[in-house]
Amino acid sequence: MDFVTYLGFTPIVAFKMAAEVLLLMMSAMMSSSEVAFFSLLPADLRRLKRAGSMQSESAVRLLEEPDMLLATILVVNNLVNIGIVVLATDIIDSMFCFQRFEFLFTGVLVTFLLLLFGEILPKVFAQGANYAVATAFAQPLIVLRWLVYPLSYVLVRTSNRIGERLAQRNNDISIEDLADAVDMTTASSTEEQKILSGIVNFASREVEEIMRPRMDIVAVEQTMSFEEVKRIIIDSGYSRLPVYAESIDNIKGMLFVKDLLQHVNRSDDFGWQGLIREPYIVPMHKKINSMLDDFRTDKIHMAVVVDEYGATQGLLTLEDILEEVVGEISDESDVEQSFYQRLNEHTYLFEGKTHIVDMLRVLQLDDELFEDVQGRAETIAGLLLELNRNFLRKGDELTSHNVRFIVTAIEGHRIDKIKIILPTNE
User: Fold this and answer.
1) Do domains 207-326 and 340-421 have the same CATH topology?
2) Which of 333, 339, 351 has the alpha carbon at shortest distance from 236?
3) Which of 43, 135, 275, 402 could lock 259 by a disulfide, CB 3.0 to 4.6 Å apart?
4) DSSP E strands, 270-385
């Protein structure tokens, strides 16, 4: 070949080759140790602790400081690889004289040797025999850790500092990131998945989405007699009632049933108005996570929700907020699932005032199914008004996203009952 001249094989070259083989073995040892130690399972660690041999004790000592172990392996491996490259180049120069392509020949040969014998084969072997490799190389690694300790210590400290800085900069996680993470999890039950989703969506929900709407508020008028107030309390079963003057838009305060207990035997002319507490007023677009902080700080359990004009839109309780995370909370006074009936596998009967979110949960539909058509509607009745753009009558039917809605009952100008028919797979 005109681009290379063979110079011969000498005893010095043989010695250098032997050293090269030893360095390759050292590189293989470091590569296999890295895979072996960091693929050990908890059961393997318990086995090491029970073994009681010098090798297993050394392995346990190394694993007590994983950062230092990894730094030792990487430092030694890089030093050995540098030695392999330098020595291989010297061997080639001693045996051949290149006119051209020397760098290409040397680079290809050294890369092949390093990758095959120093990286790939050792790591493949260690993957299947990690326990044996870890115990076999534990004691040599103890010695190597002591030899390169200063350099390893500097590397570990530097990497820890950099990691802390990056962690401080990247500690903000978006709601979208959390939502994606929840979608990728495999919770042990559907209930756990719902709780995780509730936590993720908690900060994005507003008060108006979960409040009890104006039409469902049970309140007492400021001029009512004591007997009338007691009757409303008994009929409603609530422990807190808003008190208004003339109109529900003019809330004067909150009446706590516990404040009335000691006066329950008073006459009808008892001045119960003196027990009214200051109302807590909140805007309807306030975030519920902020609302929870307010409830906790001010030690209150109920708030009156108003719009931008100060008109009462609904009531919000601490229970309403908690239910966004843990789901429906029922006590002995609640009627279980009273807002809907399941008529058959694909047909349900809902109250018109049911929130769209609750409907989707019951029907096990996507939370954003009607997002493109619901506008600012929060209830099923509001959704139908958005779809129809006009008042509906009993028997009217609408379809959206393959879900059929049939109005079955009207109360005044309000849609009271709605039959929902889900699409079949047929």
Assistant:
1) no
2) 333
3) 275
4) 281-283, 302-306, 312-317, 340-342, 347-351
What b-and-e string marks burial along 264-279, b requiring 16 or more CB atoms within 10 Å of the CB? eeeeeebebbebbeeb
* Angle, CA of 244, 250 and 247, to the nearest 5°: 70
For tokens 């008073």, name the residue: 266
How do the domains of the chain map onto residue ranges?
4-169, 174-202, 207-326, 340-421
* Strands 340-342 and 347-351, bridge-based pairing: antiparallel
Comparing C-alpha atoms, which of 134, 124, 119 is closest to residue 40? Answer: 134
CB contact at 8 A, 62 and 152: no
At residue 320 the predicted structure's pLDDT band, cuts being 50, 70 and 90, is confident
Which numeric CATH code is attached to 207-326? 3.10.580.10
Closest CA relative to residue 357, chosen from 336, 378, 337? 378
Nearest-angstrom CA–CA distance, 251 and 243: 6
Q: d(Cα 260, Cα 22) in Å, to the nearest integer?
A: 91
Residues recorded for the chain = 426
User: What is the rounded average pLDDT of the residues 229-240?
Assistant: 89
Task: Give the list of residues 6+ apart from residue 361 with CB closer than 8 angstroms, or none.
Answer: 194, 327
The answer for residues whose C-beta is within 8 angstroms of residue 170's C-beta and 6 or more apart is none
Is 240:217 a contact under the CB 8 Å cutoff? no
Q: Does domain 340-421 have CATH number 3.40.50.300?
A: no
